[in-house]
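lol forgot to send this yesterday, sorry. struct tokens for the thing we talked abt
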């Protein structure tokens, strides 16, 4: 199909200093948990973005001094020649598809733990670090340190040019780099020429920019990544005052202004807390004060929103990290007029969560992310099966839908049976919770894709029994029947049933999602799950007029959300909704009209009036059908499907990303002999030096 001329502007080349971007799709630097630790995986992932049409593809942050060692995070380094090998390979991959390669040079300043290098961190002032509240203190940079830092930055820029990078990004963003620390009044109380006035606090950033330009000349563009607002009101940089003044003072110096807000939790907001294009109001002034190209991010997945941002004069380039993770082929799909094939990011920050746990990132929408090299999975290409077989998938949640989509691409005859009239399983139900509507994209993309496949038949309102499954005579059967929340309190902290939880006024998230509501007006939510579910149900019930108390055994509610950067926003929302939080609290018994709790901090029992209780603790697989089938097949000894598997939550309840991944994997491995004793992917090998002198 031809591209809609409405989107032509997105495919206009753009001159950025001495280089020209082939289009307006800019994959901004983003962490991915691979970096130098799993370099082949990182290279495969970046190359895929270029193949998918992103005109500029950047590294994640790349630290260039041992005192700026980002360990344990798997970022990139530019410490010595050894780093040139994998960074050079990344550049090659990006150039292979005609895209530009950018590198983001960084020193995380006073928040660099230097866990590997053991160097003393430095920054504008002596201060303890905030990172993990580690008992480490950074020292104030003296003039010699500043000179060393500038020299190292210059050297790294030159090295990056030698490797072939087209954009050298000088990074003062996210409240996480030396120049941003110098710029922030809260971090910089120096009395020398690097402290005090805005001009002084901006001095180091200006020096870096000037020196980088002077060093590399026209070999590459020198661009900035700059936070115009620290989102802390007058205590920090604001786009209406110092944020704007800083851009004005350096307006024509960089070849591109890539602007956003700080810190990372404000920049990478989830869809629960911010809509597409949410940074526009903060960055809109930038194009008015510079003639240089401007870019921003804001989870843009719609080409109409992208075109609109350019036409309204907000940006010239559309920056994207998460949308490029969810769909590395987004630009190609717009170019080829295949908008219905775009796999839109749902804004869940699971990718961020895994990076924050220092693991290779994963994506809810794109199960191939990070597996491009490791498993050889291409996000768009699935090989045809050697022969067509009949694949029956029972359950059309995220796991079943993804399994059906991939089996359809393989050319199998696919039957997808779903008990409910509506497809989507848990994503359909959960997307009705406050703030989670974008999650329905997991369903919509897959239902849209299989709807156009003549070889995939979907049966709605068809709850299959074991006998019916066998009657269908499929070659392969996948049971993707999901999971059920427990009512008895079993979870991370309690492993024996809580007395009284069998009563009718005790509900689970499944009951709430099915439209059930607690009786009366006072509700206790017990959260031993520690992710989003209890919080969004609290928000829902509170909006409906319930008096909600949220109790959890941990010192904080929804602790895991610290990884998805939602922890602060979630707390703010719960407070705003009037939810009473009871941390350090264990549920000991449920009675009529009240619950018995234990305050584990003060070691005392607490009684609380509660008309209804919602237990958010853990889930069990809905695997009855699987076991029935297994027994029936064994009893029949012969006949029945060639393979029978459990997929997704039916195997082990988890996050949606895991269900999608397992559904994808199931079909990719269909008919392939897999020895479970062997490692199921390619490994990264390090070279061990011979002999110890
Ligand atoms: P997952 O996350 O693993 O995909 P979900 O709970 O989202 O799991 O989806 C499971 C789906 O399976 C639900 O839509 C449910 O209605 C459906 N289902 C459960 N049992 C059967 C059955 N016997 N026949 C058909 N569909 C079923
Ligand atoms: Fe988007 Fe979620 Fe994928 Fe991250 S994990 S790219 S937020 S869909």
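and heres what i got for the seq, position by position
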């Amino acid at each position: 199909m031809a591209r809609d001329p409405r989107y032509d502007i997105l495919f206009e080349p753009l001159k950025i200093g001495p280089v020209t971007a082939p289009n307006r799709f800019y994959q901004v630097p983003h962490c991915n948990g691979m970096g130098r630790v799993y370099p082949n995986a990182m290279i495969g992932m970046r190359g895929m973005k270029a193949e998918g049409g992103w005109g500029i593809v950047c590294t994640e942050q790349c630290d260039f001094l041992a005192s700026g060692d980002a360990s344990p995070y798997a970022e990139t380094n530019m410490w010595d020649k050894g780093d040139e090998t994998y960074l050079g390979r990344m550049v090659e991959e990006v150039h292979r598809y005609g895209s530009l390669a950018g590198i983001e040079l960084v020193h995380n300043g006073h928040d660099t733990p230097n866990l590997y290098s053991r160097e003393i961190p430095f920054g504008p002032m002596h201060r303890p670090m905030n990172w993990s509240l580690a008992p480490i203190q950074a020292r104030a940079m003296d003039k010699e340190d500043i000179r060393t830092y500038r020299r190292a930055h210059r050297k790294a820029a030159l090295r990056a040019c030698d490797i072939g990078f087209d954009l050298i990004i000088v990074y003062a963003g996210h409240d996480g780099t030396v120049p941003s620390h110098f710029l922030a009044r809260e971090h910089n109380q120096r009395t020398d020429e690097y402290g005090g006035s805005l001009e002084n606090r901006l001095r180091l950033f200006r020096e870096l920019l000037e020196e980088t330009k002077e060093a590399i000349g026209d070999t590459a563009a020198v661009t900035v990544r700059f936070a115009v607002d620290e989102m802390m009101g007058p205590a920090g940089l604001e786009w209406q005052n110092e944020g704007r003044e800083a851009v004005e003072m350096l307006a024509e110096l960089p070849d591109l202004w890539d602007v956003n807000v700080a810190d990372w939790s404000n920049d990478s907001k989830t869809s629960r807390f911010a809509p597409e294009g949410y940074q526009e109001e903060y960055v809109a002034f930038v194009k008015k004060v510079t003639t240089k190209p401007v870019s921003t991010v804001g989870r843009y997945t719609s080409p109409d929103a992208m075109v609109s941002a350019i036409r309204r004069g907000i940006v010239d380039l559309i920056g994207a990290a998460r949308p490029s993770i969810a769909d590395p082929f987004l630009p190609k799909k717009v170019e080829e007029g295949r908008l219905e094939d775009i796999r839109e990011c749902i804004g869940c920050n699971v990718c961020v969560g895994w990076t924050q746990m220092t693991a290779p990132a994963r994506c809810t929408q794109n199960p191939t992310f990070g597996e491009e090299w490791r498993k050889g999975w291409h996000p768009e290409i699935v090989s045809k099966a050697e022969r067509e077989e009949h694949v029956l998938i029972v359950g059309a949640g995220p796991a079943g839908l993804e399994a059906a989509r991939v089996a359809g691409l393989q050319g199998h005859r696919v039957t997808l049976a779903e008990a409910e009239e509506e497809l989507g399983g848990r994503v359909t139900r959960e997307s009705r919770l406050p703030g989670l509507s974008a999650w329905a994209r997991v369903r919509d993309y897959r239902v849209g894709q299989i709807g156009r496949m003549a070889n995939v038949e979907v049966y709605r309102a068809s709850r299959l029994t074991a006998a019916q499954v066998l009657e269908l005579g499929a070659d392969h059967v996948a049971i993707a029947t999901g999971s059920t929340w427990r009512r008895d309190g079993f979870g991370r902290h309690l492993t024996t049933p809580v007395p009284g939880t069998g009563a009718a006024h005790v509900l689970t998230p499944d009951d709430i999602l099915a439209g059930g509501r607690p009786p009366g007006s006072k509700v206790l939510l017990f959260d031993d799950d520690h992710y989003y579910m209890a919080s969004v149900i609290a928000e829902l019930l509170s909006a409906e007029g319930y008096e909600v108390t949220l109790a959890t055994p941990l010192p904080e509610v929804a602790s895991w959300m610290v990884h998805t950067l939602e922890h602060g926003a979630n707390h703010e929302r719960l407070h705003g909704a009037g939810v009473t939080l009871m941390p350090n609290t264990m549920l000991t018994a449920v009675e009529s009209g009240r619950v018995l709790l234990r305050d584990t901090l003060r070691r005392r029992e607490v009684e609380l009036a509660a008309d209804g209780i919602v237990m958010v603790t853990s889930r069990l697989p809905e695997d009855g059908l699987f076991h029935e089938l297994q027994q029936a097949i064994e009893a029949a000894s012969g006949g029945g499907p060639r393979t029978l598997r459990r997929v997704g939550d039916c195997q082990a309840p988890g996050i949606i990303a895991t269900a999608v991944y397992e559904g994808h994997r199931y079909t990719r491995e269909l008919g392939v002999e897999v020895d479970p004793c062997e490692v199921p992917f390619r490994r990264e090998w390090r070279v061990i030096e011979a002999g110890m002198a």
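The longest helix spans residues 143-163. anyway ping me if u want another try
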